[in-house]
Design goal:
4-stranded antiparallel sheet; 2 domains; disordered N terminus; 207 residues
Length: 207
C-alpha cells in the first residue's frame, strides 16, 4: 500500500456528506485519504484486508461522524458509518442516530463471503472428481463382469496357470472396485456436508 498523505484537519470539515461510501467502492484508498484526511485508527483483518476508522465533525449538529472503510490492496471494498451519522440539512432540527455495523460485523461478513467462495470451489472440485471416478467405476464394472463370465464359461478349458492368472486379474479388479466405491461414498458425504450449509450449490450427481 502507498504511504498516507498527511493533510490538515480542515479536510474533514469541508467534506461532510452523509453517505459518500457507495461511490468509493473499488476506488483508490489514497484518493479517499486525500479527500477526507488520515484515519484515526486501523487494524488488520484475518484475511489480510485492512480496516481504517475516520472521524469528522458534523456541519449542522454537535458531535462527530465515525466512518469505517475496508481496504484490499489499494482499493476500498466496503464502507460503513459507525455509531452515528451526520444529519442532512433537512434533518438537523430532529437529529437522528442509528446503530450501524461494527468493525467486527464487517469483518465477519467479509470472512463469511470468503468461506462461501472456498466452499463453492471445494464442491466444484469434488463434483468433477466424483464424475471422473464414477465413470471409471462403471467402466471397470463392465470389464469385471465380462472377465467373470469368461472365467466361469471357460474354466474347464483352461490350464491351471491360465485359471490362476485370470483369477488374479478378477481379484485385482474386485479390489479396485471396492476402493473406487469407498472414494465415491467419501466424496458424496463431503458434498452433502457442503450443500447442507449452502443448499444453492447442490447439483444432481451423475449415475
Amino acid at each position: 500500500m502507498k504511504k498516507f498523505i498527511i493533510l490538515p484537519l480542515m479536510v474533514f470539515i469541508t467534506a461532510c456528506a452523509t453517505t459518500p461510501f457507495n461511490n468509493w467502492i473499488g476506488k483508490d484508498f489514497d484518493q479517499f485519504v486525500i479527500k477526507y484526511g488520515t484515519p484515526v485508527s486501523q487494524f488488520k483483518m484475518q484475511n489480510g484486508d485492512m480496516a481504517y476508522s475516520f472521524k469528522r465533525p458534523c456541519p449542522y449538529t454537535p458531535g462527530q461522524e465515525e466512518i469505517l472503510v475496508v481496504v484490499s490492496g489499494e482499493n476500498i471494498i466496503k464502507g460503513a458509518t459507525l455509531q452515528t451519522r451526520c444529519p442532512s440539512s433537512s434533518e438537523h432540527q430532529s437529529y437522528n442516530t442509528y446503530t450501524a455495523p461494527s468493525a467486527q460485523n464487517i469483518q465477519a461478513e467479509t470472512q463469511a463471503e470468503r468461506q462461501r467462495k472456498d466452499a463453492e470451489a471445494r464442491y466444484n472440485q469434488l463434483y468433477s472428481e466424483y464424475s471422473k471416478t464414477n465413470a471409471a467405476y462403471k467402466n471397470l464394472t463392465k470389464e469385471y463382469t465380462a472377465n467373470v463370465n469368461n472365467f466361469t464359461s471357460n474354466i474347464g478349458k483352461m490350464t491351471a496357470a491360465q485359471r490362476d492368472k485370470q483369477k488374479a486379474e478378477i481379484d485385482a479388479q474386485y479390489k479396485e472396485l471396492g476402493s473406487l466405491s469407498s472414494r465415491l461414498k467419501e466424496m458424496n458425504e463431503e458434498m452433502s456436508a457442503v450443500t447442507k450449509e449452502y443448499p444453492d450449490l447442490w447439483r444432481a450427481l451423475p449415475q
